[in-house]
Here is the input.
Amino acid sequence: MATYKEIRGTNIEVLSSDPSNPVEGQVWYNSTSNVLKGSTLTAAGAWATANSRNAAMRHFFGTGNVPTTITAGGQNTPGAQSGVTEIFDGTSWTEVSDLNTSRAYAGMSGDSTAALASGGQAPGSGALTEIWNGSGWTEVNDLNTSRFSATGAGSSTSALAIGGRVSPPNIANTEQWNGTNWTEVGDLNQARAKASSQGIVTAAVIAGGEPGPGGALTELYNGSSWTEVNDLNTDRASSGSTAGSDYTSFLVFGGSPPPGPPTVKALTEQWNGTNWTEVGDLATARLALGGSGSGSTSALAFGGTPPDNVTTTEEWTGAGAVQTRTFTDS
Here is the structure.
């Protein structure tokens, strides 16, 4: 039988902590925990518990990749809007500078160093836009159409604000941000609010939302117009989702089928550019949660309400990602 050194060309390392970026097949001895560990590729995606947020919120907004994510605003109790901003660094959440205007139900795009928050629900906040520069928020030019429960895609300098609600009707309006101003562009085919989206200003995807007829609908944007494509398997609104730039690799998780009383879901669906596939469920079913990530391989789900607000955070590891396993004698 071949030895590890003969296979890998080196002896098993003795390390005081696990390596930050292990490669498939790497084996090491953790001298702190006194266990033998190795790395392998995941066969299927799954959610795992991560450290909780500091503030329990619902209807807040988040964006970024894994491990770095930013969240802002939301409701800590029904009708009580918040300006709290938190950043996740891959291990823990830290509170940073608040929004200038407290609000919930805003759209968001960008990442933890440069983000854009637009619209929202609070007196006078429906058209407000604020930019995050890594340390604080600055008010910039407003949306053309005041709205809340919209969704966003893109970066802090090139973004979309999609759909939403002008109390009470839902709208189909899409606006594009160029770093200075908003311009109205092609409308959605289905007016909707509380949907999920991902992508860039020339290639984006939106899925789900309210009202009921929009609960499973998926549309793709090509930079000028929207086209209806294959539906989600399960109607839902107020879901979490990834926030990457690739419109062909997208996760939607949690939420509740519209309309009617909330039926909280844990379901996760994965979009491959053509079809939706149900994958691993969240450990905690919830709606009005936040999400971030870069597609189907990595994601973060945080906060929400089942029905009380929670700080719960879960991290998704998609199929084919490297993960660490502990060897035992059983």
